């Protein structure tokens, strides 16, 4: 499989190069040259297969022979080493819980998969690689955990100061070792812009071998397909058309689901649910892609105004807005609506959602009003404990606190405060010995 830059289709690289570079030299996202079509028989017999086999089978065409089979087997089994339960919340509405991994968010899957691939590719190369990553909350912790102590890899995480939850901050600032956290006085979009600028900086490139661990990197983006296949495996016997509602920030997760559908997974429709950072819902209404400045919300990991992966979604539909709208609806919700949903779902169904999942739930309910014969799954992307400082007060005592979280509270934050200025990032990076 080769990958091309969405800025320049003539620029093509292998999977290995796409993973190591993260972003094309022209700042374009990499996209697969072909979209593999899975055998009908594989989809029809999905429930008979083991989840690890499914993971390997769906990712293999994107890797070809660049990672040997036994190695891929190990990477996938380290990636899918925790459960992905599907819970009925109310009739026809299910939550797919993606937060049972080490950092309690769906990002663990992509981060572990990418760490495995990069670890393999770097094994016989003496030059250390530096992973530059921007986070609005969950990616940072997952990448820190996934790459902690991976030989030959250093990680620099940029996060917006004061805009992530207390627990998210602990997850990304307390490991030390090969993980460094930079606290940027700006928004997630600023952090992401600084990271993307660094990839184009010749001077930095001479000192560092840089890559990205955001979903702009194909090894972070592609394994997010796994959720949809694993969920479908459980629901195959349902006789209704299935809709997935995905709480969306940088749009990597939903984009991977849409890719799974194009590979043959029978998903009737997707709902991209956002908070008031609503660039995509507005685009689907008026055809104008016009990001506003990002606004802080309770669902902070989705405080993204300019989602990187939307260009990949457009590409999946050959840039046809009509084809895209037939498959994707998108709605935005306020914090008040989010809190009301958390409260009412707990009161009526005794299921505790956190703010991101609640936005997904609201999106699903809105879509089901116009399409009542469908059955819907919303993705619960993080554990409520990650937002224990912003969850409705009367529900905080209902949050189960996992053992691994208790240990984190006592660890000390280590971060470097930097202004929202690319030159500040560059000076900091040039001043430290090559990482
Ligand atoms: N929601 C993210 C923002 C970055 O998304 P990514 O999937 O591209 O890493 C976060 O939690 O940091």
Automatic annotation (TrEMBL):
Its EC number is 4.2.3.1. It is an enzyme of class 4 (lyase). One of its GO terms (molecular function) is threonine synthase activity. InterPro entries: Ser/Thr_deHydtase_PyrdxlP-BS, Thr_synth_N, Thr_synth_N_sf, Thr_synthase-like, Threonine_Synthase, TrpB-like_PALP, TrpB-like_PALP_sf. Gene3D superfamilies: 3.40.50.1100, Threonine synthase, N-terminal domain. Residues 88-369 form the Tryptophan synthase beta chain-like PALP domain. NCBIfam families: thrC. This is Threonine synthase. It comes from Chitinophaga horti. The lineage of its organism: Bacteria, Pseudomonadati, Bacteroidota, Chitinophagia, Chitinophagales. The gene is thrC.
